[in-house]
Amino acid sequence: QGLAKLFGAGTSFDQAVSLGGLLSADENKIQYNDLKLSLGDFVGNGKITIDNLKNKNPLSIKGNIKSSSILNLDELMSANSSSAKHETVSDDLQKSTKAVAPSKSFVPQTLALPMDVNANVQFDVAGVVFQGQKIKGAFLDLNKKAATTKVSFKALELPGQGKIDGQVNLSFSSSSKSPKSGQVIYSDPDVTYAVNGQVGELSTFLKAVAPKADTSAVTKLYKTAQFDLNGRVNGNAVSLKDSTLKLDQMVVGLGGRYEVPASGGRAKAAIDVSAGEIDFDKILQSTSGNKKAASNDNAVSGATSSPNEALKPLQGFSLPLDLTFDVSLQKARIN
Hints:
By secondary structure, this protein is α+β, with helices and mostly antiparallel strands. Helix content is 16%, strand content 52%. The chain contains ten helices and 15 strands. A hairpin with a 2-residue loop joins strand 2 (29-39) and strand 3.
């Protein structure tokens, strides 16, 4: 908890936290070798070094924790302990579309640290439990230097035979330091992200991520997914560009922007989709529940179908935000 406060976080734990190992220290350095870290039932081993304590220009923190046990965040985090069983990622999305104060943003506009700190910390654990879902083979690498922080992450197994890896870069364009207290204040943040992964069972994955959402229109059509997402988070907006989504054999280019209202009103979203080919026959078959025969005898009965009919499920789809949806197709298959 002390380290969390050092980085400006108000994190507290519901369960006991303990450290053990070979400790050596002097006026300028603290080093924990053969470290044993216990967080409730979780036990990890590694090493932590805190250097440059005397001058603090900057303070240096290096460490690594590795464990063959499962880190249950739902049990550890007191803020989540009462709500983790009832709220999901989809619930968070619903909340984020409600009216918010003008100062609301995805990234805090300032970050205050009690001193200048550089950090390089790695976590490699057998698994993580978050919002009731188990993520296996989880790895996190946090590297902070001056006003720039890079976070790399990886998960070898997600619900639905999935896996994911990516990187988030956080940088602040300006900073100030108090000559008396040594406190450092970073401001004007900019966040970029790159995430890619794949899912072997799309229905299982979507059920885990958004259990309250009706995703049957998608899961009836597609069984697997691959994604490569790139974008930026700035203020109250998240953008997506130069990204791709592959559903079975259909490859879709993605771009867009999601923006929380500055003061009152509804959230806004714009989605740009481009695809080489979309099979509307397949969509119609799925939404109607009846497969079309390939013979000419049934061609007449299918002639009344149109892209408008295929898109009816989307037209009736209600979201608590203002959505602009642009689609660009090179080829459409109809009948």
